[in-house]
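Researcher: Can you fold this with S-adenosyl-L-homocysteine in place?
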Amino acid sequence: MTALTNLLDLDPAQLVSYCGELGEKPFRAKQLQRWIHQFGASDFNAMTDLAKSLRDKLATRAMIAAPATISDHISSDGTRKWLLDVGQGNAIETVFIPEENRGTLCISTQAGCAVNCRFCSTGKQGFSRNLTVGEIIGQLWMAEFELRKTKGIEPGPKGERQITNVVMMGMGEPLLNFEPTVMALKMMLDDNAYGLSRRRVTLSTSGVVPMIDKLSQECAVALAVSLHASNDQLRDGLVPLNKKYPLNELMAACKRYLDYAPRDFVTFEYCMLDGVNDTDVHAHELVALVQNGVSVVPCKFNLIPFNPFPASGLTRSNNGRIKAFAQILMDAGIVTTIRKTRGDDIDAACGQLAGEVQDRTHVQERMQKMAEYREKFGRDFGRIVEISA
Ligand code: SAH
Ligand code: SF4
């Protein structure tokens, strides 16, 4: 028996070819796409405007499946975190952050990460593998329709959209999983799928210079760059990729990107580490880097209070220090925000996304539970929902 094709893995053009292989006209692809991404359908029988013969054909050859949910937590501040099973003991995380006028989904692009930044628990876990297109877009598909279900909002274009913004800031380095990431981005922007504007989709990178240029040509969404240091020596120690692509090259790439970007600035993320990168001297050096460096880069700064994890050996800068640091940037005319830490109580804050994976036994326990469920209910996957107060 041939394996079922997961339709979440196909971008719009591939879905048209797939329909062609089934002897169907291209407009069927659009219909299918709307059923999948606008109605959240996973059952071909529910696709009532497709001929019965096509539905039957699809049922024997295709499937629509996101990674299975291992756990689903809702934090006291409304942040919701899913732990998803991507096989062979690997789990990834997806986090929804509700705010007054928007809902942001933070998605993962790899299981683990090879970049190994000193302050990041995902990095400490090492690299397992790249996620497929279906595993990346499947996070958005699953989350949008789960959120609607929870709120009793109907699926389909008329129902209130829950996810208005996407940030690729979960586990992994998106630019080191380039093709699947771009295919998933294109689905996010497609009018027959999620129809998000390029300004509302942000890719965060640790600075893979050639891929920043490639992204500008293939799918220029909003760009965030994880800077974390004001000079090469410091950055070499925090983001090892800096040795390959040092700051002058990174800044030049950011500047080039802006010619194609949907916004006229790059967001620099800067994780505030006590005594490491948070002094006034660092702040002044940063101002010089972006305003008087080899490439002057229009930018905003987003200061992220470090989220500690066991054995990092690092601590968070205190609030006064973070404010003083921000003030120096603002006095130089740079828009600066201090990121509110969300979802602390469920380990959903930045850099904690692999927290539970660190605690491998915990994940193994859950996986074991999943296997038991599978056995008991004869289903491929189950759900274990835990709500923390
Ligand atoms: N790999 C990409 C995207 C994922 S990381 C990148 O590095 O940009 C998303 C953001 O979380 C990055 O800015 C990263 O530096 C930050 N981050 C990682 N670990 C953190 C921690 N322990 N505390 C605060 N922010 C962290
Ligand atoms: Fe990878 Fe980003 Fe973590 Fe660095 S901060 S290890 S690039 S996920």
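Model: Folded with S-adenosyl-L-homocysteine in place. The pocket of iron/sulfur cluster (ligand 2) is lined by residues 113, 115-117, 120, 122-123, 172-173, 206, 226 (CB under 6 Å).
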